[in-house]
């Protein structure tokens, strides 16, 4: 195969970005109509974003953002037209729809075309900070998010209102400063005990603090946050409150006995741990640890109705949270161990016959008398009329591009409307690799192949690339001019309608 020149490769990448923008615009129009007609409504599906996260391979946050943009575009015809023509990228449109209104979209569009996506995002952030922020906006924008990083460390993102944020920072800094003074005093006493003159000892302490000040300050603040959380955990507890959350460590017994042994040790829902860390946790904290060696029998038959704590932990490890595809609930206190073969009809309290469901989905199962079973490790759920529901997530992705013409949508409403379907092995087995007809050689054809992928019925007329100026600018000045023009136009429009008054 003849290798393309770098200029041709760059041109095809730019053209591909234009096609992606136009195709995303068309896809969002479908999402907007689907949302407007409530095609997503079904058993346990709470919103259009919920359905997209279930079937379109998106995280809940990404799905909500796509739905937000899809809902906003019909009210912004100028921006929507530029998006459909491939003149704006999705990143720019996503930013503009946060602030654009009917009387500002034209000026914002003209500016966005001349700026990069990064500049557009900065413009929107500056606009929102300068514009009036009411209590509803503050409430809607509060944020608490976390994830485990690749190196096993916890990353936390928070967005708080000014009053709570100031109090939080003051508390953290107070504890960190207290620890810094104690560390300095301890270092001074150690130096004096070693016979070092006081003046020289203080100089050495200050020099060491300057050299490692940033790292020590960060460590003290992280420790302060952990102390605040630990101290507040038991404050104000009352009868009827949910049980305290527990840290669950999964560790093979062989690993605890020998660091070099084959096995694993990790925090449930978190990173891997070294055996020495697990042993320290066992000795120094109230962590509840599940030691695993081979498979422990967790069935108790008909002797008791409610699942034991060990069974609930085993179910959480197997199901990962609520078993309904697309449900993100993983908190143990919000999960119920449901008997698939109901206890009242003779079902046993065994792990194989139970499934974890959240409060909402557990209520739906009983209210609608849903029939649940497990085949080849996969949960099969049917309604009373035999319609399959709660299919696996991302059904359309099963066969990739080559499987688009197939029908992998068993249990995906509103696509699957078959009543009385009996389970078959083909519904559980994954699509074989031979059914995928899209070849790697087709992907190597560059822009032509991308056009066929994105526009099977033929591509619309599109520009070769998006116009971007990217000139440096004073964002505060730009925002001031745009918002001044907006306010002037609104005032003139109010005067024309006779609505303007001196009080306004």
Our Rg estimate from Cα atoms comes to 30 Å
Count of DSSP E strands? 10
End-to-end distance: 71 Å
User: Which bin fits the share of residues in helices?
Assistant: 40-55%
Mean pLDDT: 76
User: SSE order, as H and E?
Assistant: HHHHHHHHEEHHHEHEHEHEEHEEEHHHH
Strand order of the largest sheet: 4-3-5
Task: Summarize this entry quickly.
This protein is mainly alpha-helical and 504 residues long. 47% of the residues lie in helices and 9% in strands.
Topology at a glance:
Blueprint: H1 6-36, H2 48-55, H3 60-72, H4 77-84, H5 90-96, H6 105-114, H7 117-130, H8 135-141, E1 143-148, E2 154-159, H9 162-193, H10 198-211, H11 213-232, E3 248-252, H12 253-257, E4 265-267, H13 275-284, E5 288-292, H14 309-319, E6 335-339, E7 354-358, H15 359-367, E8 371-375, E9 378-382, E10 388-389, H16 425-428, H17 440-443, H18 447-454, H19 475-496
Parallel strand pairs: 3-5
Antiparallel strand pairs: 1-2, 3-4, 6-7, 8-9, 9-10
């Amino acid at each position: 195969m003849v290798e393309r020149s770098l200029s041709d490769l760059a041109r095809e990448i730019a053209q591909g970005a234009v096609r992606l923008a136009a195709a995303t615009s068309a896809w969002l129009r479908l999402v907007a109509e689907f949302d407007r007609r409530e095609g997503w409504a079904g058993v346990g599906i709470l919103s259009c974003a919920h359905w997209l996260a279930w079937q379109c391979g998106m995280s809940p946050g990404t799905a909500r953002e796509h739905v937000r943009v899809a809902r906003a575009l019909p009210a912004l015809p100028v921006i929507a037209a530029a998006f459909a023509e491939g003149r704006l990228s999705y990143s720019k449109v996503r930013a503009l729809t946060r602030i654009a209104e009917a009387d500002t979209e034209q000026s914002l569009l003209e500016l966005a075309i001349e700026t990069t996506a990064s500049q557009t995002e900065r413009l929107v952030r500056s606009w929102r900070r300068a514009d009036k922020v009411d209590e509803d906006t503050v409430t809607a924008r509060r944020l608490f998010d976390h994830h485990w990083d690749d190196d096993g460390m916890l990353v936390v993102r928070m967005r708080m209102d000014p009053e709570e944020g100031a109090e939080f920072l003051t508390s953290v800094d107070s504890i960190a400063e207290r620890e810094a003074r104690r560390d300095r005093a301890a270092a001074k006493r150690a130096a004096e005990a070693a016979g070092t003159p006081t003046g020289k000892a203080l100089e050495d302490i200050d020099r060491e603090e300057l050299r490692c000040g940033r790292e020590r300050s960060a460590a003290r603040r992280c420790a302060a946050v952990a102390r605040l959380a630990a101290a507040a955990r038991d404050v104000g507890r009352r009868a009827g409150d949910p049980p305290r959350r527990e840290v669950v460590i999964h560790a093979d017994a062989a690993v605890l006995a020998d660091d070099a042994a084959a096995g694993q040790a990790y925090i449930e829902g978190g990173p891997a741990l070294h055996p020495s860390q697990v042993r320290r946790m066992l000795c120094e904290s109230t962590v509840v640890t599940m030691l695993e060696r081979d498979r422990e029998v967790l069935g108790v038959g008909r002797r008791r109705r409610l699942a034991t704590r060990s069974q609930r932990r085993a179910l959480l490890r197997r199901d990962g949270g609520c078993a309904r595809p697309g449900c993100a609930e993983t908190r143990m206190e919000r999960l119920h161990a449901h008997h698939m073969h109901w206890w009242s009809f003779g079902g046993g309290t065994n792990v194989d016959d139970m499934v974890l469901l959240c409060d909402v989905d557990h209520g739906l199962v009983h209210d609608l008398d849903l029939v649940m079973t497990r085949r080849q490790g996969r949960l099969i759920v049917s309604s009373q009329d035999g319609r399959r529901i709660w299919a696996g997530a991302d059904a359309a992705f099963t066969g990739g591009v080559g499987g688009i013409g197939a029908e992998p949508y068993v249990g995906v409403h509103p696509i699957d409307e078959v009543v009385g379907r009996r389970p078959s092995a083909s519904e559980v087995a994954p699509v074989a690799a031979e059914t995928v007809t899209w070849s790697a050689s087709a992907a190597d054809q560059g822009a032509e192949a991308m056009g066929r992928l994105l526009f099977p019925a033929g591509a619309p007329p599109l520009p070769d690339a998006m116009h971007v100026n990217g000139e440096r600018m004073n964002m505060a000045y730009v925002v001031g001019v745009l918002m001044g023009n907006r306010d002037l136009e609104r005032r003139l429009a109010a005067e024309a309608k006779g609505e303007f008054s001196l009080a306004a």
